[in-house]
């Protein structure tokens, strides 16, 4: 195997986790519309740092596509021009995607950093597909999965644009999350393929593998339920205002209670896996991390509900949920591979 390719796969995976982290910070701080256009931010590659940069000024040179806020409306420059002493509306056209026209420097730069993380990740995925080409003759699946991951990243970029154009549609955000998890799974499969020769064979147990599949499916269901709860919170925040976010779960809907109660089943199933792993000496050490992640997930969920969303808890809850799914999926890859080896 090419010794550099495994490192590229890991860099792609790390960069994807950074995107999850940056995205969760964006949602935690309500910065999703910090840049109301895409891919630029208020028409700039580097966003403004003061509101004055977004106001109309006389005797000022404007570039085509630059955005200003005038009378609480986003306006886009139709061409390169220099203003006179009087405002000429023929030089401008209203932004057509939505009517959101607010500027908050903290929100803008939080969203901008999120986009920079995505751009950086995109370069790693380019290196991934280039490096995978040499495996086409020996192991086509590596090349196929690498190109699939890259194409899904492009789809994620389009979804990111759609999220902004829709003014943070909860359903599109949910799809955005699910596709991200699919990419994680593909990268983990690539990691397993390129590291396969280095792995130490473990004891196998078909029942353990089947319950592990069940535990991973439960985690996916829980993440989906969590996105639904998040949708409800987002809708309440829109009604009550971001400053009143703590009030958004005063009267939660049924999905919240299902999400909370389903945690009990998830904990029981994973504790069973831990017990069977110890009893049979299967040597899946990553199960220790699963238990730690479950504790952190439960604790952060309790804090969000009972302590009114302490800063950082939403980010931890999302990111560690992704880690939980990642470890479970990789354990499946190891377990299934060992079963095939034994057979």
Automatic annotation (TrEMBL):
One of its GO terms (cellular component) is membrane. InterPro entries: COX15/CtaA_fam, COX15/CtaA_HemeA_synthase. It is a multi-pass membrane protein. One of its GO terms (biological process) is heme A biosynthetic process. The keyword Transmembrane applies. Pfam families: COX15-CtaA (PF02628). The keyword Protein biosynthesis does not apply. Pathway: Porphyrin-containing compound metabolism. GO terms for molecular function: metal ion binding; oxidoreductase activity. The chain crosses the membrane at residues 112-129, 141-159, 171-190, 211-229, 257-275, 287-307, 313-333. Keywords: Cell membrane, Disulfide bond, Heme biosynthesis, Iron, Membrane, Metal-binding, Oxidoreductase, Transmembrane, Transmembrane helix. It is found in: Membrane. This is Heme A synthase.
